[in-house]
Write a structure and sequence with these properties.
The relative contact order is 0.15. The strands form two sheets. This protein has a six-stranded parallel beta sheet with strand order 3-2-1-6-7-8, sandwiched between helices. Strands 4-5 form a two-stranded antiparallel ribbon. A hairpin with a 5-residue loop joins strand 4 (about 120-125) and strand 5 (about 130). The protein is globular, with a radius of gyration of 20 Å. It is built from ten helices and eight strands. The chain is about 40% helix and about 15% strand. The chain is of the alpha/beta class. Helix 5 packs parallel to helix 10. It has a domain at about 5-15 and about 75-120 and about 135-250: HAD superfamily/HAD-like (Rossmann fold), CATH 3.40.50. GO terms for molecular function: metal ion binding; phosphatase activity.
């Protein structure tokens, strides 16, 4: 095993768009969505939109067909399969919703490659319409994160802490994301972990403005081809590092500090 957990954001990371906006736009409900957005939280807007879409005669099958057309870079699927084949545990941490994510992954043949998906609950009710709820019920209490970038329904940093606790420090983490909400989990990563921000997206900008807050090494990417190349290089590098350290512990013949490994890319400030 590689001793690595790769945690992916979903929207604009695995897929090349925002899945909520994609469904709303493709079904022709953009104007109503834009009218509702200033009046209630995002999750509430999406649940209300699913009610309206159902009332207008659109079915779950219509939504599924739209999700099957979701744009994705052609190198993403091979990247996920390669990371899994190299022994990595793969997880998704996303502020999309479970129905959209699982439908897209099923269509791509990727669902079985992920050991855990954490997102906002989404399911089809007895009336045949999609319901979407917040991951954290902010109407009852706050999730407690003081970082203003985290939406009220999900703090990815708190979820990252849970992931880290479950690993017990035994595995390295590679985190991939693009948005403001991916900055909080980035702050939770430690030395020996890696953050892969999408270049020129919000989380990249936040990292560039706050480099001293980041303990993990930063390796940026721009598109699916870039993601595949950087991710597989990192996995191979971390795996080689782990094997050398293991040999050092057993034979005590050399120091891991003498290893010559690729240098991390510097974040421009």
């Amino acid at each position: 095993m590689a001793g690595i957990v790769v945690v992916f954001d979903f929207d604009k990371t695995i897929i090349d768009c925002d899945s909520d906006n994609w469904v709303i736009d493709e079904l022709g409900f953009t104007d109503l969505f834009n009218q509702l957005l200033p009046t209630m939280p995002w999750n509430s807007v999406m649940d209300t939109m699913m009610k309206e879409i159902h009332a207008q005669g659109k079915t779950i099958d219509d939504i599924v067909e739209v999700l099957k057309r979701t744009p994705i870079h052609p190198r993403i699927v091979p990247a996920v399969k390669s990371a899994h084949a190299l022994g990595c545990e793969l997880r998704i941490l996303s502020d999309a919703n479970m129905f959209f994510i699982e439908t897209i992954l099923d269509h791509l043949g990727l669902k079985e490659y992920f050991s855990e998906i954490t997102s906002n609950p989404g399911f089809v009710n007895e009336e045949g319409r999609l319901r979407i709820f917040p991951c954290h019920d902010f109407t009852k209490c706050s999730h407690g994160c003081s970082l203003n970038l985290c939406p009220p329904n999900m703090c990815k940093g708190l979820i990252m802490e849970r992931i880290q606790a479950s690993l017990g420090g035994k595995k390295k983490i590679i985190y991939l994301g693009d948005g403001n909400g991916d900055f909080c989990p980035t702050l939770k990563l430690g030395k020996g972990d890696y953050m892969m921000p999408r270049k020129n997206f919000p989380v990249w900008d936040l990292i560039c403005r706050n480099p001293m807050l980041i303990k993990a090494e930063i390796r940026e990417w721009s598109d699916g081809e870039d993601l595949e190349r950087v991710l597989l290089q990192l996995i191979n590098m971390v795996s080689v590092d782990a094997r050398f350290i293991s040999v050092d512990c057993k034979l005590q013949t050399f120091s891991a500090s003498n290893l010559s490994l690729p240098k991390p890319l510097r974040v421009r400030q």
